[in-house]
Structures are given as C-alpha cells and as structure tokens.
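ARCHIVE CARD
Drawer: 12
Card no.: 0347
Subject: one protein chain, sequence and derived structure
Cross-reference: see card 0346
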Amino acid sequence: MRIVISTFISLDGVVQAPGGPDEDTDGGFAHGGWSHPFFDPEVVGGAFSDAMSKAEALLFGRRTWRTMAAAWPERAGDPFADRMNAIPKYVVSDTLGDDELTWHNTTRLPGGEAIGRIQGLRAAEGGDLLVMGSPTLVRTLLSEGLVDELRLMLMPVLLGGGKTIFPEDGALRPLELVSAVTSEKGVQVCTYRPAAGG
C-alpha cells in the first residue's frame, strides 16, 4: 500500500485545527476552523473524495482519531461518511484502551510497534493507506521515509504559528510536483511524490 498524506495547510506551513475552534488549542492556538472560508465542494471536496476512493485503509494519530471518531459515526447515511465509517482504520497510541476503540473497524498500533507495523502495511498489496491530520505522526512518517505521496491543500492564509507536518532535522528531501489544481477561492491542491534519486 502507498502511504498518502492529505492535509489542509496554510501558506506558512501550519496544519493545526483546520476544522473547528476547539479541535486543537495546544500552544494557545486561536485560529481553529481557519480552513472553512476556503473550502469548496468541487476542488477541495473533490480532492478528499478522490483520496478516499483510492484508500484501502486510514491511519491516524490518537488526537485526530478521537476527533474523527466523535464526528463521523453520527453522519451515517451520507456516502462519504459511510465510507469513512466502514473502511479499516489504524490509530497509533499507547494510551487508548481497546475498550475505547468504538469507531467501527479500528485497530490500535502501540507506539513502540507503530513504525514496524506501518512498514508491514506499506509492503502489503492494495490501495492507499491514507493519513489525514495527525501532524506528529506525519512528521515521523516523513522522517522515516515512509511517505509515498503528499497531497497538500494550500490555503491562502497566514496563521503566524502552530503545528506543522515537516521534520526539523536538517535532512534534504526532494519532491516532485505531479499535479496542481487551483480553486476559485485560491486554494492550491498540490500533489507531491519523492523525487527519483532523492
């Protein structure tokens, strides 16, 4: 399976709390829900629908999984929500108990085993292993060279600080732009893959 990252991102590289004011206020982040003014069903919604159509499973960090698990089950009946609820899901966590894995079809990957288990999933045949949100997990996956595709929904906004997905280890990681689409609201959906020989 390919590991594909799909995320909203500001021009200054922030991915924190795009969905709502209380999603993630760590560090005093006060701009939760910043992606909403720029969302459009055709380009941005279409990018998510396309990513989901190619996904065989979803991979989350604990905080993003909790947010999604609280939101999607109650939206049953919508085709996108039904797909989210039915698809296999993996969550990396040392603190979630098995009794808390109430979102249908979720498997917990203990933190100490996560990289090995994710490498095993990546080596398996099948569709994409899609990661949404989960900045800490994405940073780790990028650091470990386990990301096959980055789909960034670059929003025309500066947030002045917040969580990012990019490692700060000084390593050079060349990427190749394989597609770019711009919405009427100025969002650029850019798909990158590791550059050959990078």
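Annotation on reverse: The first helix runs from residue 44 to 54. The longest strand covers residues 3-10.
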